[in-house]
Amino acid sequence: MFTHRPKFISKVFIILFTLVIVVFFSWRFYVGNFLIAHALGEYNGAFYTNSNEAFENSYKRGFRQFEVDLTKTTDNKVVCFHAYNQEIYEKLHIEQDNFTYDEFMSGKVFKEPRYRFTTLDLEQIIALMKKHKNIKVMMHLHSQEDAAVTKFLLDEIIKTADGDEQIYDRILIGINFPEEIPILTGQNKIRNIMYYINVKNKRSENLKKIKDITAFMKQNNIHIVSMPYKAIIKYPKEVKKLRKNNIYIYSFAQNSIKEIIKMKVIGVNAIGTDTIFEW
């Protein structure tokens, strides 16, 4: 009776090995096509670094969609940094929010040694897109309601991409305020635009109620909207209405697998995450 055991063990091993391979590649596909590395992802336990190390770490994990924050320095350069957020400054041990290009790129603004990562600028992000032709980058413009800053950031993106249509097609511009919309829709280089809806910030939202979102998006000819988790869970019918009108729904940033699964079931198209290993 023991003569068949080796064959049985061999079959079990083949089945388990096959399942591992299927799960691995399914997960890689899921991460690459549904999840977005928020602020380029996690690095050394820190979020919002927008650093080269965060990008490399996320890319190795299978991410192929990235979100990066763009900010104008005091000497009119564009760097990768989430500005105008005191909570983030405290997390990254930053003591100043106005800095020159050289101050930022040298890492001098980060006072904690743990966060002495490799900072990035706009040119380096475009270079990464040219090197990795399979990635897409969502560029979140931080203008603090200043339309002139928004236009400056957009012009710099277009200029840095240097007429490369393939790069333009893989860029998604994220904006927060209504005044920014005509700046984005008034040009024809970068056509992928996302509008952030923040239900806690009446100024940012510029909507009387959540049910106005679909009409707002259609009126402004924007086809991607970002909504917070609580709004998506509270208003699933609005999510269905948006999808019915061919408007894609994104959400930033979710680190709970449970929340990510809930939103996927409701119909969210893509989710930004700092890390994918929290339950």
Give structural notes.
With 279 residues, this protein is of the alpha/beta class. Helix 13 links the parallel strand 8 and strand 9.
Task: Give the fraction of residues assigned to helices.
Answer: 40-55%
Q: Sheet bearing the most strands, described?
A: 9 strands, mixed
Could you tell me the number of beta strands? 9
Spatial separation of the terminal alpha carbons: 45 Å
SSE series: HEHEEHHHEHHEHEHHEHHEHE
Q: Please compute the radius of gyration using only Cα atoms.
A: 21 Å
Write the layout of secondary structure elements.
Blueprint lengths: L4 H30 E3 L14 H9 L4 E8 L5 E3 L5 H6 L9 H5 L16 H10 L4 E6 L5 H15 L3 H5 L1 E5 L5 H5 L7 E4 L5 H4 L7 H7 L4 E3 L2 H6 L1 H9 L3 E4 L5 H10 L3 E4 L6
Parallel strand pairs: 1-9, 2-4, 4-5, 5-6, 6-7, 7-8, 8-9
Antiparallel strand pairs: 2-3
Summarize, please.
This protein has 13 helices and 9 strands. The chain has 279 residues and is α/β, with parallel strands linked by helices.
Please give a handful of descriptors for the protein shown.
279 residues, nine-stranded mixed β-sheet, 9 strands, globular
